[in-house]
Amino acid sequence: MVCCPACGYQSVAPEHSWLASLARSWFSPGRSRRRRRRRHHRFDLTLLDVPAGYRARVTGFLEGFPAERRASLQAYGLSPDDWVTVLQNSPVTVIQLDNTELALENELAERIRVSQILKEDQDEDRQ
């Protein structure tokens, strides 16, 4: 709150208000949430870009991906040239690899490169 010393009128200071910053992030023109999240090359597709109900081929990991996280994901079967199915994107990205389901933080999912996004009922051999 900001208070006028002369008259005592009080108002919300928008630069310090949590609600005002939330409104700015949702309604500011030219500032979409997806554009702010993307920090890599604009032509890279990531696991976060794959809609629920679609399959994608994993092509690799973006630069700076922690080696220990990569090793743990590969232990679960998430490695390049494998197909994954995205089951949900919110609040976390849930994927299915063969008979394993993994829940990934969205920040982690946006650092996994994919290609060849297909609807679940399409066969990858047709592409």
Give the topology, please.
Layout: E1 2-3, E2 10-11, H1 18-27, H2 33-37, E3 54-61, H3 67-75, E4 83-88, E5 93-97, E6 100-104, H4 106-109, E7 112-119
Antiparallel strand pairs: 1-2, 3-4, 3-7, 4-5, 5-6
Description:
This protein is α+β, with helices and mostly antiparallel strands and 127 residues long. The chain folds into two domains: 2-31, no CATH class; 47-122, Ferrous iron transport protein A (FeoA) (SH3 type barrels, Roll). Helix content is 22%, strand content 28%. The protein has helices at residues 18-27, 33-37, 67-75, 106-109; strands spanning 2-3, 10-11, 54-61, 83-88, 93-97, 100-104, 112-119. The strands form two sheets. The protein has a five-stranded antiparallel β-sheet. A two-stranded antiparallel ribbon has the order 1-2. The longest helix is centred in the N-terminal third of the chain and has 10 residues, at 18-27.
Helix content: 10-25%
What is the total domain count? 2
CATH class of the largest domain: Mainly Beta
Largest sheet: 5 strands, antiparallel
Strand order of the largest sheet: 6-5-4-3-7
Q: What is the CATH H-level superfamily of the largest domain?
A: Ferrous iron transport protein A (FeoA)
State the distance separating the first and last CA atoms: 59 Å
Count of extended strands? 7
- Gross geometry: elongated
Separate helix tally: 4
Note the run of SSEs as H and E.
Answer: EEHHEHEEEHE
Provide a brief overview of the structure.
The chain is an alpha+beta fold and 127 residues long. It has helices at 18-27, 33-37, 67-75, 106-109; strands at residues 2-3, 10-11, 54-61, 83-88, 93-97, 100-104, 112-119.
